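Appendix B. Raw example, untouched.
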Amino acid sequence: MGAIIEQLRMIAWNVWHYPDVMDFVDIILLAIIIYQMILHLRNTRVSQTLKGIVILLAANWLSGVLGMRSIHALLTWITNAGPVMLVVLFQSEIRRILEEMGNFEGVRMTEGQGVDNIIDEMTMAIMNMSKRHVGALIVIENGIRLNDVIATGTPVDGLISQPLIENIFEPKTPLHDGAVIIRGDRVIAAACLLHLSDTKGVGRDLGTRHRAGIGMSEVSDATVLIVSEETGAISLAKGGNLSRYLDEQAVRSVLRRLYGDGTSSRRVLPLLRIGKRRQKHDDEP
């Protein structure tokens, strides 16, 4: 830890006394990287862990200043082993961050059907299931491919339609228990297994279906629509956050923002998506 601090001091001294163009470029790139990391981490449980790390480092420094040798030795050992522990504890979050940083494309549309038709079919299916209290878990793939999740279910590979979606989630049918994965304008797989979220902030009134939806949104950039079997309420899971009690207009708005005009697959550099992320976050229901 001391060696890292001393190295940072040397870098700061060199930049302050002998600045050149590359130093300014280096600082700008570092600021962008830190900003992107904050954007990716703020909606995950890693952000809470970072607060604990700051407290741990402060306690380590304070124990050294006060001469508490035993506590200081223990905290120093924990600090040195910290990077390995973080990789083990947050491997899914780290994978998600790396995947998002390497993501250069959004929802890919095919020539099967138009965007308006997709939105109409999905909205009618969701509203009908909501009225009949039919539980549903619909995962709409975005830039991060969900092939590992698709492998746990049954292949479907059919164009999106209201009868298809409703038939899949119809109670006592072979594929009703699990999640549906949608890629572009096609239902790729059904009865897929999702990892449950272990976030403690989830209400006790929410069941396994909602926890699975939140968990899916925590480890990917997918949009998850959930219909409660008990109440018929429609919920949206995105980025680890859950928005509940969506109406038909809200569902259409979510799908419209997700699919856009659907004329082509958009490719956007991650560093250029800052403004779009802010706008999308502000528009969340």
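End of appendix B.
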